[in-house]
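Batch manifest, entry 17 of 40.
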Amino acid sequence: MARDLSATESPDLEVVLDALDDADARAIIRALEEPMTASQLSEACDIPLSTMYRKLELLTDAELLNEGTQIRSDGHHATTYEVAFDAVRIELTDGLDLDVAIEGRERRPDQRLADLWTEVRRET
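Output type: structure tokens
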């Protein structure tokens, strides 16, 4: 599922902190120099594939990763993941509550097309 970080609503602070507190999740973020599939990440991070899927869900729920689609000529498309942020800021509000702000990355045209393709696949 593609995530749109241009929305004004920020993710839940606890969800983001839980994701960033997870050593495997941080290893995944470090490994994502370019979009990768779950299988590629599993191998690169030496994390079992079943665990990898849980960690990827944790990171996408926290809006720290974007999901995309790798379009293949054989029709067996693959979900890819990439880092969705340049900065994560924890701020103290005027009401003395903590708030999280995620500064999203600019999406390239091919990434936006892949997001569109993901939405079309979901609708069919």
